[in-house]
Amino acid sequence: MGDRKKRITCSALRATIFVFLLLMSGCGYSIHRQTALPGGEISVGLIENKTVEPKLQDKLNRALTEEFVKQGIRVTPAAPYKLTGVINSFDMISLSEKEGISVEYRIIVTADFRLSDAGGKVVMTKNVNSPFIVALTASEDLGGLLAAKEVLEQKAMADLAMEIAGAVIFR
């Protein structure tokens, strides 16, 4: 009787594991090893700014470098994979007004990215929009508004960098 009980318990355990694996595979979860990353290193190349907003390319380059380092990918000029990009638009849309003056804005950034390998073959192209709403609330003085705008530009670039790093890692 004890042998039969062991077989039933073993079968139940197998069925439970099978159901668990079946459920996990349908949820979009997957396991990625370090070797699935682009060689463990990447080069962040030219980021072109086609907007009238100054220095966005520098902020995005810095944000991309920081995000890849956070994800465990070395950023080096001699890497086999090279990421380049173009910032196409930077919009500050008024969300609310107070006495006829805009006091809250939403920042939206749109950019195109290309990931190419050592041979110059394009591995991935991606049209990315800033994934999160970055809102700016204006203050009475212009200095405070400009300082808040600077911080939120950096946040928008960090959000964009997080989105593109995820696309590169999990492509």
Description:
The protein is of the alpha/beta class and 171 residues long. The chain has two domains: 1-30; 33-169, Double Stranded RNA Binding Domain (2-Layer Sandwich). The chain is built from three helices and six strands, in the order αβαβββββα. Strands 1, 2, 3, 4, 5 and 6 form a six-stranded mixed β-sheet that branches. Helix 2 links the parallel strand 1 and strand 2 (74-75). The chain is flat. The N and C termini lie far apart (52 Å).
Describe this structure in a few short sentences:
With 171 residues, the protein is of the alpha/beta class. It is 40% helix and 33% strand. About 4% of the residues have low confidence.
Q: Key terms for this structure?
A:
single chain, 171 residues, alpha/beta, Double Stranded RNA Binding Domain, 2 domains, 3 helices, 6 strands
